[in-house]
Amino acid sequence: MKPLPVEDFVWAGVHLLDVIAHLETLEIFSMLQGQWEVHHQAARKVLNHIETAVPLGNRNSTSVIADVLLSLPEGDVRRRSLQLSIFNFIWIDVLATSTFGAVSFCPCAFDYLPLLDSGAIRSQDFMGCQSQVFAIVSRIARLEQLQLMHQGEMNQQFTGPEFQRQHSELEQQLDYVCQTLREVIEGLVSVTSGLDLDAAMISLIWAYGARVLLQVVIAPIISEQSSIDQTFVNICLERIEALPTRLVMRTAWPYTITGCMAMSESQHHRFRQIINHVLQEAQAPGITWKGLIVMEECWRLRRMHHDHCFGWREAMKSLGARVILT
After folding, report:
1. CA distances from 41 to 107, 170, 183 (A)
2. pLDDT of amino acid 218
3. Predicted pLDDT of residue 33
4. CA 275/CA 260 separation, integer angstroms
5. Are 294 and 68 in contact (CB under 8 A)?
6. What's the confidence (pLDDT) of residue 34?
C-alpha cells in the first residue's frame, strides 16, 4: 500500500487527535472524576507515532508536525485550525506533567517547546496565559523528570552543577517575566481594560504559580528544606484576589498549586473567599471548585500529620482523584 504524503499523514493524525480531545474534554468537565488520563495517554501516543513514523530525510526539522504548521500561510484557516488542535494537546500536557510529574506519562517525541518559544503557538490567544510562561512551566516539569531519572546513578554530573545551572536559569527567567508583566500591567491598567490587560494579569498569576511549583518540586532536592517559603504563595494569592472574578476560572492551576502550599489558617480563609466572591458575582468558577477540594484535603492531611510536606499530589492521591486543573 502506497504511504500517504507527509502532509496528509500529519492531518490524518491531527483529525484523530481532535476526536480524542473532544472525549478528553467531556471527562475533564464532568461532575464526576472522569478518565481524562486514558485519553491523554492516547493523544501522546498518536503524536509520538506521527513524529517517529516519518523518516528524518522527509522533513525540514526535528518535528514533522511543526513543518506542516509553519508551511501554511499566516492567514490560512488551516493554520489556525492546526494551531488550535496542537494547543488543545499542549494545554492539557503542560497541566498534566506539571501537576503529576512527567514520569507519569508515556514517552512522546513531539516537542512543542520550540512552537511556544517562537510564538508559532500563542497560548494567550486561547486561554489567557502567555506562551513564555507556559513554556517555563513545561521546562520545570521536564527538569523534575530528568532529576528523578538520574537519582541513584553513580554519575552525578547532571544532578550537581548542571542541575543547579538549569534551576537558576528558570528562576531568572521567571523573575524577568514577572517584572516585565508587572510593568505591562501598570502601563495598561490606566488606559485600557481589554484582552491584552486580561492576558497580562492571568500570565503574571501563572508565573507566580510556576515560582511555587519550582520551589516545591525542585528546591527540596537542592536544599533539603522541609517547609515552603510563603513569599510567592502570598504574592500569587494577592494577585488572584485582585483579579476580576470573570477571569478567576483561567487561574485554576496556579490557584490550586499555591493554595495547597499555603500554611496558615488566614491564608486558607482567603483562598476559600476567592471562590465565594466568584459565585456571589454570578461568574463561572471553572475547575477552581475542584481545586479548592484538593486544597481542603491537603490542609486536612497537614493538620492530621503535623507535616509541611503534603502537597497537591498527596492530596489527590488521598482523594483518589487526579484532577486536571484546566
Report:
1. 9, 27, 39
2. 80
3. 63
4. 15
5. no
6. 66
Q: How many CB atoms lie within 10 A of CB 161?
A: 10
What local confidence, expressed as pLDDT, does residue 154 receive?
A: 47
How is residue 2 annotated by DSSP? P
Q: What grid cell was written down for 8?
A: 496528509
pTM: 0.94
Instruction: Identify the segments of the chain with pLDDT beneath 70.
Output: 1-3, 31-34, 152-160, 219-227
Distance CA 178, CA 174 (A): 6
* Structure-block grid coordinates of residue 252: 485554576
Distance, in Å, from the CA atom of 253 to the CA atom of 249, rounded to the nearest integer, reads 9
User: Residue 32: what pLDDT?
Assistant: 60
Cβ(17)–Cβ(85) below 8 Å: yes
3-state SS of the chain: helix, strand, coil percent to 5?
Answer: 75, 0, 25
Q: For residue 125, give the C-alpha cell.
A: 490567544
Q: How far apart are CA 262 and CA 311, in angstroms?
A: 10
Report the pLDDT value the prediction gives residue 226, as an integer from 0 to 100.
55
Written as one string, the DSSP assignment of 111-124 is: --HHHHHHTSS-GG
Do residues 312 and 257 touch, judged by C-beta distance below 8 A?
yes
The one-letter code for the residue type at 144 is E
